[in-house]
Amino acid sequence: MGYGSIMTEVANPELEPHAVQCERLVKRYGALTAVDEVSFDVRAGEIFGLVGPNGAGKTTTIECIEGFRKPDSGSVRVMGLDPQHDRYELRERMGVQFQSAALPPRIRVEEALSLFASFYRTSVDWRPLLVQLALADKQRAPLATLSGGQKQRVFIALALVNDPDIVFFDELTSGLDPQSRRSMWELVADIRERGKTVFLTTHFMEEAERLCDRVAIMDHGRLVALDSPRALIASLEAGRRVVFQVDGAFDDAALRALPGVTAVEQTGERVTVSGEGDRFLSSVAGSLESGGVAFRDLRTEQPNLEDVFLVLTGKKMRE
Amino acid sequence: MPKLRGLSRLLIVQARLFLREPLAVFFTLLMAPMLLVLMGFIFGNEPDPLLSGRGALDVGLPGYAAMVIGIVGLVASAVETSTRRETGVLRRFRASPLRPLTYIMADVTVYFGMTMLGVGLLFLLGTVAYGVRFGGNPGTVFVGVFLSTGAMLSLGYLLAGLAPNARVATLVGNVTLYPMLVLSGAVVPMQVMPEGVQSVARFIPLTHAVRLLRGLWTGDALSAHPVELAVLAGVMLAGTALAAWTFRWE
Lengths: 319, 250
Ligand SMILES: Nc1ncnc2c1ncn2[C@@H]1O[C@H](COP(=O)(O)OP(=O)(O)O)[C@@H](O)[C@H]1O
Ligand SMILES: [Mg+2]
Prior knowledge:
Chain A is an alpha/beta fold.
């Protein structure tokens, strides 16, 4: 590599090698095309989320990238490595948490950590890792005695024990209660803060929205969108909605006449006003006040990634 | 040696895990000594003209050793390996740079070690507590135990590779083992078997382990057992090759 190219890379982060490059990836199981010409890049240092309903092809995609499944066609590079040809070099440098994997039930947490640490060229001291993951008091516990969330944290510790450059999480939080889920999110954000690239899959849109710098939305083996959650939501141009409750009959003529209001819907006592513009909310509230309407529970609703999925695929995420 | 990285740690952990499994400990280390104690209680070890002047335990003990070898080699290894594959333990190992060969080496070494320990305990108990007569050479007996263990273990691994899941591996392992234990003469003396059974027994690998160990125990040279040695070595080589070929992480 010449001096010039180093200079360019430092000066222009856009030219830094991507953490993952995936081009026209195809994977078939018999007649089923589970991953169909999927292309995307993951930037170094970002949290990248692959989201979509069960059966969309997320696990197949992530495991082709990790090198555990062999694509039928297309090309995959992870930190410049070919996951099939350079599998052992890649395994030295990546951390993996599978959607389903296990350890022998009688192995102790500390045994598992020191064992896996011994498999790598370089590894970190796993004791601080256990402290960070709130497992310090479980160090000597056999794996079978841990709760679901604790086991999941052991698997995260295993994924970090080699100080990887990139970490893959497949359905990190499914099966966890909301509180454990939130603490997982903090953990993942922490991992990114330490300069690692995070590639995760999830079927929880809220998780992707909260956690990911960019998300790729997948359905039936195809990518239907890829951008930051904010940009994806903005692209809906759905504007905002104001929702409130009224007692009895309500005449919506005054609201419809307001500038910026695009639609008013009434279902029973519930009224939904759609519109756009900065003063949308205050003008709706002002109109209700001056018209003497007895309204309750006024709130605004932002569209979210679930709405993005609905618009792009014509179906709800959870059905 | 990057290819063997993790081997020593894996050996230690695998050995500990084996010893934490109550069933494995029972079948490998305790059952044969218990059988010896029971037989000693029933028959004693007085010289018996029917057994060409040897005692019941003198004849029984090498057979019990072959029983341990059969249980660990054919069943314990197959059940554990297929369970680990089915539950995703092997998958987790595969995500690290650990080489398959390193994993298998550690695993096989631990099974060898545990079998040696079980057989050693049995021999010690027999000779010290029951005065079982040992007329052989420790070196050749070791070779016999080693070869028999290798042959049975390669079959166990082959079974783990072929069985679609742990239930099938457990079932097939046990269904083959128990008739084998009886027909091979490991627990029932061959002399009491009908002619027909004796001719079928020749096709059972464990029979050759039993004959070899009995012979070596009483002082035969290795050269006195060319058929047994050839069969066991052949099974071990073919079994290992097939087992390596059918081994799957998931
Ligand atoms: N090993 C396999 N053999 C056959 N079909 C599979 C296999 N793995 C996944 N599939 C199928 O491929 C599709 C995608 O599965 P998967 O990648 O697991 O999706 P996701 O992780 O998004 O739920 C599903 O229809 C699934 O049934
Ligand atoms: Mg999945």
